Hints:
- By secondary structure, the chain is mainly beta.
- The chain has three domains: 21-108, no CATH class; 118-167; 174-225, no CATH class.
- 0% of the residues lie in helices and 38% in strands.
- It has no helices and 22 strands.
- The protein is elongated, with a radius of gyration of 36 Å.
Amino acid sequence: MFxxxxxxxxxxxxxxxxxxxxxxxxxxxxxxxxxxxxxxxQSCQDPCPTIRCGVNAECKVNSHRPYxxxxxxxxGSPQTVCEERKFLHILFLSRQCVCAPMLCSFxxxxxxxxxxxxxxxxxxxxxxxxCLFKECGINAKCEARNHRAHCVCPPxxxxxxxxxxxxxxxxxxxxxxxxxxxxxxxxxxPCKCAINAYCTRRNHEGICTCNTGYTGYPYGYQxxxxxxxxxxxxxxxx
Length: 238
């Protein structure tokens, strides 16, 4: 938008250009935010409102991931219902344990991963999804198996899932321009000609031809210079 200001005494015109631009987004990926926030709609926000926890459970955030946990003094499934822990009171006597009310408490819950499903781990004495505590790279996803969180690249992607998974450039030649060919899921130059040869790129292939004045196999090591043919005329015609 231009605003013209006329200076009557100097008969001058000052054009002021106002440039309006869209503000830069606060974030595009979760790693651009603090660990207790996630990138939602290009803004760093609390991700807890995006999930629903069960009765007597609360939401916490770890590495941009929201997850549910039972409140202190409760146990159960934080996604559905957490119930108040039942304390078993015990008294230690000469290395032996006997029941005795109001003396000491024994907390229920898991003690090892093997008490949980294969896709869960024993975290804070509760069987939980370990992926809630794992941060994977860009475009990567987390899979829980053998009680551990594993970052993997999705189909048709490769790279380091801990950092960045990138989509394949191609799976076959038609995925590339006609001057390139698909090799190892990347569009590359098809030309591999010999020395002293030139290449014509056509339909994802490189067609090699020896340079003018050279001969040989244009797909091998090199084309050699052509030797001029010498014609001898007999002094004694037949």
